[in-house]
Each structure stands twice: as C-alpha cells, then as structure tokens.
Amino acid sequence: MDVERVRGFLLGLPNVVETMQWGANLVFWVGDKAIGGKMFALANLDGDGRAMISYAAGPERYSELLEIEGVIPAPYMARIFWVAVERWDVFRWAEWERELTTAHAITFAKMPPKTRAVLGLPAKEQKRLIRERRALLAERAAAKG
C-alpha cells in the first residue's frame, strides 16, 4: 500500500479533484474548490512522521475508528470528525477502499444542492463554469489588492 495506489483510487471516484497545499500535502476534493467543492481526504507526502493520510470519517464511525491502533484524531480536523492514519498497513486494501469511498460520500452529501447540481452537469459545462468562477474570483482578489 502506498500513496500512489490511494491517489489512483481517489481520482477514480466521481468528481474528484486534487490540489497540492500546505507544503507537501495532496488534498482531494469532491468538486473543484471554485464551485464550492469540499475536501474529503489529505495525503501527507513529507514522510515526516506525521499521519500518512487523513479523511472524513463522519460522526457515526469516528469513535469506532479511533479504537484502532494507528488511527488518531486528525490534527485541526478532529472537530469535524476526521481521522488520521499513521501507517498504510492499518487497513487492508478493501478496507481502504471502503473508508475512502465513505469519506467521499459523506462529503458529497453535505454539499449544498446548488453545488451538487453543478457536479451533475456534463464535464464540458462543469469546466466552463469552473473557468468562469475562477476568473471572477481572480478579479475580486485583484480589486481587493
């Protein structure tokens, strides 16, 4: 198990976008941030002893997952029921698939109806809306600066 295998799996889920943020962290989003996408998983690429991956666990599974050795409350995100996994061998591959698919589903379910509607559009229309939204956000940022 490694980050490339997890990355490939996550990018195969519907409407997933990845960004590199906060140093060497791959952040996985349901939908593009420009249209209201929300992150559901974060993989640490630093190899600095911190958790390998953090993800949305939801309130129903949060406490149960924390009982597993190698699973801890996610730094900065525990209050919204995220867990961090310290080693890739904490779960078998089928369990990783289930956990990360559930994180994706939890996050998608929390999205506003307007954002979910955009995610239901054909890819070409989504890209156009994202491009327009990014241009608007850049325009606003330039006006503030």
Automatic annotation (TrEMBL):
GO terms for molecular function: DNA binding. It comes from the Bacteria. Keywords: DNA-binding. This is Putative DNA-binding protein (MmcQ/YjbR family).
